[in-house]
Amino acid sequence: MLTLFILTLQCYIASSAILYSLKHHHNNLHHQRPMIHANQTTCALFVGTWIPDDTYPFYQSSNCPMIDPQFNCKMFGRPDSDYLRYRWRPLNCELPRFNGVQFLMGMKGKSIMFVGDSLGRNQWESLICMIYNEVPQTQTQLVRGVPLSTFRFLDYGVTLSFYKAPFLVDVDVVQGKRVLKLEEIDVNGDAWKNVDILSFNSGHWWTHEGSLQGWDYIELGGKYYQDMDRLAAMERGLKTWANWVDSKVDKSRTKVFFLGISPSHINPNEWTSGVTTASSKNCYGETGPISSTGTAYPGVFPEQMKVIDMVIREMNYPVYLLDITMLSAFRKDAHPSVYSGDLSPQQRANPIYSDCSHWCLPGLPDTWNELFYTTLFY
């Protein structure tokens, strides 16, 4: 019986040949250079600089029909606003200004689905707000659920959905135990079929430990493990996702995107040269971007991004990597910090409660969607 088999393998150590092979493979990633993506001209969309721009933001949180409390920084008392007024300028070009009506007309009758973790939800809510700001009188419909939530612009027949799947591959519950199935994607994949635009993301949950860990057991090659090398597990899971895209997605109908790793700002040494102050404990109290020309990554480049880069390179399907990792790394000022949800005054005064992983809305994910819009229509 499967449940008994799992329980008898609680102490099974991750030392099989397949695990050794995976670990050896991911170790080679340290010698790979990340891709720099550009369009068909000399414009490098994901390399550039942040410049002040008083025409931003695109919307106010009070005018958007939906922003989760964890992203709604103004509602929960963030006093500064300069972080809202920065525009991304790519190398050798300017981004076209986002146009919500053009987006709806271009996507008329089509469906867009964001699949992944809460960073994908961050982007999904941002896009809804950006569009709604320009067509506030249009008929809409919101259906919240788990794992699927859907927002519809009814007058245009445009559907924007978010499907929660932090690992992309399936997680089954067996006798109360969560089993992360690195080689299965059938349950999740069924929900992604027949969508016109698919945008995936995954990364942060693979490294979570303790109470934040998203599984009790990992299934691989018919065996069950309590743990294994995390990057090796991520690589195997993403290859399962890649095989699904290569074999199940209709290239003539569906465009597929992958959102790069969204960086966290939990280590102030990455922007203070090792000198910390009372206002530089993680992203707490940060009100301006990291100064940079946008050509070198500040801090330690995320190892998960190297895995994503490698997997996408090996695919047959032309997945577009929305490579927001470096441009987002400069924005230490754009996280909710202690303005995330209903914290007490005592908690707001303590940097330990800072959310330095998600992003305020309005805010940085709006730029992700400017880039998304650019790659769709230009």
TrEMBL record:
It is found in: Membrane. Residues 95-374 form the Trichome birefringence-like C-terminal domain. The keyword Ribonucleoprotein does not apply. Residues 42-94 form the Trichome birefringence-like N-terminal domain. GO terms for molecular function: O-acetyltransferase activity. Residues 1-16 form the signal peptide. It comes from the Eukaryota. Belongs to the PC-esterase family. TBL subfamily. This is Pmr5/Cas1p GDSL/SGNH-like acyl-esterase family protein.
